[in-house]
């Protein structure tokens, strides 16, 4: 089936797509060809640094061309989805552009995902290959063995690709994939594949924290996904001289926009680190000029050794409210600080470079694109709330999804009648010194934000109730100084399981560890919010933040 006929993919209405094209926001090149274009302009400039490994734009371009040709030679076909479970490093970057160049669709799952998540996502996307990374911590989870298990009896998964694992009869290491193919031949093949791809064709699958059930799949399309990144780079005024550090998981949407496509759209250098790298040392040793810090890393701003990162010019803070001392600490260092509110579904709000201090310190700013449309509605309605009052942020625009993939029923609830995405975030719109900007005041979606990883409460509750001794379950967030939030499970049941027993149950179901509750409370009955039996989570959240009684 051609992509244009895929009923699972919700397209932009033709009139809006034309408007985005006419306004020059959507370009005519694919992501792969945008990268290649930058590579012809910046051939000898470093595109990627990871420790001692450096790839120039030309090197990364050629290697990813060959990767693409090698993947097609292996038997993969344009349009095939490929699951990614990788760590930060140079090979995932080569693989990323290589997959796009072959017309394959990267599926951005997490290396932390296990059977429960991967089996559902791979079935929903009809993944054909699974790229796994064996370079994790020694004695850690065996992703290669896991990929082989996943392929058993799976209707579409046929290829296991590996990073950091020896060659085997049933898997293909990607380190030298296609390296025997002459660079010109690989380029010609890539051009042929790219010629057949339209600007509104599917490019990438990202995952949403979602509001119900298992994670929803977000389709990101060629032109809009690249536009999202170019406008991010433009926001920060990048001109190609920057050295942009990124330490979060690169295959997250934030990683792709802020860490990979953003710097490459500007012709800048990505200085890639790992989530466990000490950030001030990385910034200092690499002479990085820019970094985005997620909520769990905000304390870096208070680290005295950050003063030694002399090249640092800009810090973007994203993921949760910014405490005043953290913002002030950056100012004392003479570093520009601003905020970003973003999501895998698209919309970004950013504080303009020239915005007054109060806008940058206390709000997440304004929409990134001039054609973003934002409404603040009374939750669950299409009734606008006045400025100054909290309501649900709803949005549509040139890089916001028009529907989750293969989720027609969910889409009816997740969008307004005129196609605005209901984000589930509560915001207040206000005027500060002539700037109309937004602040995030909470959320109505039922999830826990654990250091940037979203835990879907309903999904975990259903898994908890599947235990024979549990009759009711509710998962709520407890505030945590480092991660922002952690999950606390309230349970009602016939036998009081211990926390390790509950975790063993989730482990046996193949649930990713970051979703396991970190605190457990047993109740004789759940507090109810109404007569139809809806659990009163507000009350549970209050209970969860109260000091723990010894039981
Ligand atoms: P994700 O799609 O995983 O990037 O998560 C997006 C969600 O993270 C948003 O819908 C918000 O709930 C939350 N989020 C992102 N940026 C911010 C921010 N600056 N402040 C508060 N919450 C944020």
From TrEMBL:
Name a Pfam family for this protein: AMP-binding
Q: Which PROSITE patterns match?
A: AMP_BINDING
What InterPro entries does the entry give?
AMP-bd_C, AMP-bd_C_sf, AMP-binding_CS, AMP-dep_synth/lig_dom, ANL_N_sf, ATP-dep_AMP-bd_enzyme
SUPFAM superfamilies assigned: Acetyl-CoA synthetase-like (SSF56801)
Q: Which residues form the AMP-dependent synthetase/ligase domain?
A: 35-405
Q: Where is the AMP-binding enzyme C-terminal domain?
A: 459-529
Protein name as it appears in the record: AMP-binding protein
Which organism does this record belong to?
A: [Mycobacterium] crassicus
Lineage here is: Bacteria, Bacillati, Actinomycetota, Actinomycetes, Mycobacteriales
């Amino acid at each position: 089936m051609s992509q244009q006929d895929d009923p699972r993919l919700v397209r932009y209405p033709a009139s809006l797509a034309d408007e985005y094209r006419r306004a020059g926001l959507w370009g005519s090149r694919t992501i792969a060809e945008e990268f290649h274009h930058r590579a012809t302009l910046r051939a000898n400039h470093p595109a990627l640094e990871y420790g001692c490994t450096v790839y120039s734009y030309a090197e990364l371009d050629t290697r990813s061309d060959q990767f693409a040709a090698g993947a097609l030679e292996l038997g993969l076909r344009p349009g095939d989805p490929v699951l990614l479970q990788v760590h930060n490093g140079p090979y995932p970057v080569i693989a990323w552009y290589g997959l796009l160049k072959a017309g394959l669709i990267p599926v951005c799952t997490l290396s932390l995902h296990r059977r429960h998540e991967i089996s559902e996502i791979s079935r929903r996307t009809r993944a054909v290959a699974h790229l796994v990374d064996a370079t994790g911590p020694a004695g850690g989870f065996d992703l290669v063995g896991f990929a082989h298990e996943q392929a058993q009896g799976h209707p579409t998964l046929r290829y296991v690709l590996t990073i950091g694992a020896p060659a085997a009869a049933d898997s293909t290491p990607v380190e030298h994939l296609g390296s025997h193919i002459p660079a010109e031949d690989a380029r010609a093949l890539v051009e042929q594949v790219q010629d057949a791809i339209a600007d509104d064709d599917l490019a990438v699958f990202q995952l949403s924290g979602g509001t119900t059930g298992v994670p929803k799949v977000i389709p990101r399309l060629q032109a809009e996904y690249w536009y999202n990144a170019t406008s991010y780079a433009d926001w920060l005024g990048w001109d190609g001289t920057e050295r942009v550090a990124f330490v979060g998981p690169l295959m997250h949407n934030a990683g792709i926009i802020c860490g990979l496509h953003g710097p490459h759209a500007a012709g800048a250098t990505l200085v890639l680190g790992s989530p466990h790298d000490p950030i001030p040392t990385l910034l200092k040793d690499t002479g990085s000029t820019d970094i985005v810090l997620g909520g769990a890393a905000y304390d870096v701003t208070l680290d005295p050794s950050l003063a030694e990162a002399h090249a640092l010019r800009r810090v973007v803070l994203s993921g949760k409210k910014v405490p005043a001392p953290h913002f002030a600490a950056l100012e004392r260092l003479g570093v520009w600080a601003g905020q970003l509110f973003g999501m895998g579904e698209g919309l970004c709000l950013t504080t303009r470079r020239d915005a007054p201090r109060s806008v940058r310190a206390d709000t997440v700013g304004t929409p990134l694109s001039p054609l973003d449309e934002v409404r603040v509605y009374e939750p669950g309605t299409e009734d606008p709330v006045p400025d100054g009052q909290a309501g649900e942020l709803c949005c549509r625009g040139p890089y916001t999804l028009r529907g989750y993939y293969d989720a027609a029923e969910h889409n009816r609830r997740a969008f307004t009648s005129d196609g605005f995405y209901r984000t589930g975030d509560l915001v207040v719109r206000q005027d500060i010194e002539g700037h109309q900007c937004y602040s995030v005041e909470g959320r109505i979606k039922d999830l826990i934000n654990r250091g940037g990883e979203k835990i879907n409460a309903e999904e975990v509750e259903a898994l908890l109730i599947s235990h024979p001794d549990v009759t009711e379950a509710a998962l709520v967030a407890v505030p945590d100084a480092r991660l922002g939030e952690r999950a606390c499970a309230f349970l009602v049941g016939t036998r009081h399981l211990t926390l390790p027993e509950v975790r063993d149950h989730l482990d046996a179901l193949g649930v990713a560890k970051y979703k396991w509750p970190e605190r457990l409370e047993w109740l004789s009955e759940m507090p109810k919010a109404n007569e139809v039996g809806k659990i009163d989570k507000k009350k549970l959240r209050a209970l969860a933040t109260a000091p723990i009684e010894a039981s």
